[in-house]
Structures are given as C-alpha cells and as structure tokens.
Amino acid sequence: MANLTEEVVRRGVTAPLGLRPTPRWARIYRSRGVWRDQTPVSDLRRWRRRTPDAVAITAHRAEHGVRHLTYREYAAYVERFAGALHELGVRRGDVVAIQLPNWWQVSTLILACARIGAVTVPITTSIRPRELERMLAMLGAAVCVTVDRWLGFDHSAALAEIAPRLPHLRHRVVLGDHVQDGEVDFVRHFEDVPWEQWHGISLDDPGEDPDQVSLVTFTSGTTGSPKAVLHTFNTFHAGCSPIAIEDELGPDDRLFTPHPLTHGWGVKFGVLLPLLAGARSVVMDTWEPDTALRLLVSSGATALVATPAFLSELTSVARQRCERLPTVRRIVTGAVPVPPEVITEVGEWFRVVPQTAWGMSEVIGGTRTRITDPVDWPTRSDGCPRADLEIDLRGDGEITPERPARLYVRGASVCLATVNRDTGATVVLAEHDHGWYDTGDIVVPDGRDGIRLVGRTGDRIGGLAMIPVLDVEQALRRHPAVREVALVGYPDPHGGELACAVVVPDAPVTLADLRHHLATLQMTEWYRPSRLEILPALPRNTMGKVEKDRLRRWLRDGTALDQCPPG
C-alpha cells in the first residue's frame, strides 16, 4: 500500500479540483431554474432569520442521548467552525476530509467548509487505513477530521500512522476523549474558542461560488475500483430541489435517515435537503432498529429515507412492538435492488407505500416512483427521472428482459467528473459523448416512462447473452431456506463464466434444491446457478450494498473472504 501511495504522490495524481462546469451548461441549467447563484450557506442564513428557534438537527448518540440544535445555534457554530478552519490555514480550494460518525458536527463542518470555499471530502467510518491513505493522497487533503475511537477501531492512531506518507496533510483533528500530542483537539479548537469574534467569518459576508468543486464523494467500489466523484453545490441542489418541490417540504417536516452523513445519500437527505426546506434533520450515530423506531416517533418524523435492509429490520421490530409511525407520510428506499417483499411488508404495516428510487454517487437526482403510481408499482419499477435528468437506454436491437439496455444519463444533478482513486484517470463528463454518463447499470423500460434495474455491468454474468442477476436473486429469495443471496460470476474451465449462488440460509439447502426451485418457476435453464456457497452473512458496506467484488475475488482466487479487502 505504501508504495502505491508514494507513486500517487510522486506523480502528482490529484483530482482536478479547479474544474468548473462549461458556460453553456451553466446557462442552460440556470435558465431551467435547477441551478442558482447561492450555496447552502444562503439557506442557513435564510432560516436563521425566519425561524431561529426552530430545531434544525436532532442527533441521537448512543452514549450521550439526543442533542437538539436550533437554526440560530447551527448558524453560530458554522461561523465558529469556519473561523477555526481559517486559523488552521484552510483557504478557498483547500481539501478538508471528514471521517466522523453521525454527529451534529458533520453537518456544521460541511457548512463551515462551504462558507470559506474549502472542498469537503466526507468519508465513512467504515473506511480503513489502506483505503483512507489512497483517498487523502489522491486529493492532497490539508486537514483530516476524525474520531478518536469508534466501534472498536482506533481511527486517530490509524491516521497518525499514515500521516508521514501524506506530505500535503497539515493537521490531524481528533474529536473524542483521547487526543494525543501532534493532534488538534476538536472540542477545544472548534467548539470552545469564539473564533467568529476574531476572524469575522460571518454568514453575511459575500463570496459564495456554487459552481466550484465543493464536495468530493467516493463510490462504494462494490463492483469495481472506487472513484472520486466531483460535485458542486449546484449539482447537489439540482438533486434536492425537485424533491423539496414535489414533496412540498417545509419547516414543519422532519427527515430521518440512518445512513452516514459522510456518504452521498446522507449529505443529500440528512444535510442539504432539510436545510433547503428549513426542515429538521433527524439522525443517529449507531443503527439499532428499536432505538430508531423510538426516535422516529419521538421526533415526529414525517419522512423516512433508508435502504431495504434498514426498512426490513425496522418493520420487524415495529411488528413485535405493535408500533406504527403516526407522523410519517413519505418513505423512500433504493440505492440497492429493492426486494418486492420489503415494499409489501412496509406498506402493509406502516400504511405508507414506499417509493423506490435509483441514484448513485455520480447522479444526485436519479429516478423515483410517483405517489400517483399504482400501489404495487414500486415492486416493479425503480421510477422515472426527475425534472433535471435525461435518460438514454442503449442496446443492440429491441430492448427486452433477455436483452436489456445500458443506462446513460445527463443532467444538472450529474457530477462534473470522476477520478479513479488508484490511477488518477480522470473523466470530465462535458468532454465525452455530449455530456452523457455511462452509469454501468443495466435496465429495461418499466412501461410508465421509467426504468427497472436488471443488474450492473460489474455484476454481469455470461457472454453475449446475460443472466438477469436481479431477477434470479429475487426468485432465489422466495425459496423458504434462503434468507439472503448474491449471484456472482466465476470462471468456467473453458474461459467463460458461470453463476454461483452465495447464500445465507435459514435452513439446510443444496444446489439441487435451488435449481429445482427455479425450474418450478419456469426460469431459463442457463440462468440457474451451477455452484452454491454458504456464508453466515454477506459482506456489505454502510449503504447495505453487497460487496460483490470481494465475493468475486473469493470465488476466483480461493482467498479467504476476510483477506479480500473492499476495493
């Protein structure tokens, strides 16, 4: 790992953080009203003035209880944190990495970076030193804010170990009880010192630039090498604004998401969308479904955004406790293939039919089913594009379930560029294919101007003809002995590829059982797996996505799964 990082640093492979949208597209998107001349700092300024005493953030910490932050307090901390960053030498264009749990400080740091024009790099706490070093090296991060210890891992010690190999890293900032020499104590430096009185980093100062690269997120790397994704506040705004308008979000709304605020979904639904609407963001630092249920009820949450794994656990606990969600009027799920049974169970128990959505780190807007769709539609569709997004389904000949299309997108919520984390290879979208972005997703039309996911190119199994991975997985989940399953390709002796079912069972099951089950469903014979592997759990990332790259390497090389690190 050290050799790779040294090579990245030596060759100066850093993301083109000075990249800006082309004037043509900037004019087009502003004329459509999906881009603007302000950043989220303006939203915070507006709500500090209109509703200063309204709660902006409700943050649950497993060891400390709930902290409520009003819009007045939120704005004051943003000014203070901006001054603290300025004192550390952070200026416009400098890179600040944030690797923290879901604490209120994350939202405040993102806004503080926006205030001084720094580039924010949110990084989930599940990322370990091997991957963290690559990220910080590639981006030339000047400051990294991390937690001391979290869920049994010493993050501050890990950062200290890799720091000597990161020549651009000037400050290691640690939030927690165990701060060592050479580290900046977050509480003392950021929270306790009234920097706003000395540096004057006021929210009311001009200088907002919504078209500069301001947020760099990383793709999950579940099916390929992770990429840095370069976003502006306008690309995020284009993904948030249509939702705020369509859902009529306002100050009375309370949006809950269990996802990391240091992930694209968390930034969108846990930070920027509530702020745009003047609503309340409700978050928790440690997922526990019973606690989440109580928090949803006590906070009066009106919207819930979570991937299927979270919704399934929440529904199970709610049934056990005979508890409903009386104030929730909107549930959105997606990010991973959504099992139809999850839609059905959530809709039946909470009496709110979830809307399914498609999106990715590169595309903040994406698709979503409509509330006017038939009740069962979310079990058959991943939605139609929002107003800002164009889609193009490309395939050879007629598009059918057996011959699906590759999904290309273009629009105001699509990132400016992607950068391969390990090689530095950069793709500027405006310079390729008239701005169309190849998502890597394989889809078919849903019959109502939307799409239905079939799989990803990284999941592709087969040659000229492709096995519909998601359809096969959904069919296998209907077997009574199968709790979870991932269909993964492995090489056959003739240079081709066959399908392996990696199963987490609820009861003993054999390959013959699974093949017979699929045969009774009249599934095409060569779709059926020719190999079965049993695991106690599937490897997943923080978004609940199965890390199929790890499974693929495990099947291909015979390496122990715990020795196959992510990405």
From TrEMBL:
Keyword Manganese carried by entry: no
Pfam families: AMP-binding, AMP-binding_C
Domain of life: Bacteria
Domain AMP-binding enzyme C-terminal residue range list: 472-545
Residue ranges annotated for the AMP-dependent synthetase/ligase domain, each copy included: 45-414
Family: Belongs to the ATP-dependent AMP-binding enzyme family.
Record organism: Pseudonocardia xinjiangensis
Protein name stated in the entry: AMP-binding protein
Taxonomic classification: Bacteria, Bacillati, Actinomycetota, Actinomycetes, Pseudonocardiales
Keywords: Ligase
InterPro entries on file: AMP-bd_C, AMP-bd_C_sf, AMP-binding_CS, AMP-dep_synth/lig_dom, ANL_N_sf
SUPFAM superfamilies named among the record's database cross-references: Acetyl-CoA synthetase-like (SSF56801)
Record carries keyword Ligase: yes
